[in-house]
Design a protein that fits this description.
alpha+beta
Length: 102
Amino acid sequence: MSAPDDQWWLAALGDTLVWARLRLLESGNAEVFDARGETLVYDDEDSARAALLDAEFHAFDGLDEDDATQLGLDLDSTDPPAAEDDEDLLPQMTERRVGGNA
């Protein structure tokens, strides 16, 4: 289940979407839960965002239709993963897209 300070990021790798969750902590630190099931801790939100951008992730809440088209996404049918806990979330962190080159 997402906390209020969760931010979803995604990257498109071929026909696969890869999600990452950035969570802001009360301490000011930030955690990124990635598709390998690892939780990476950063000193602050800016450091976490920079790491995600360096890895070619895009903030899901900042995507517009042009961004989505470049990534091969339909914003109306794309939603971040949702689960009660990280164990259940992990299998949803990579998503094979239908279509592509035949």
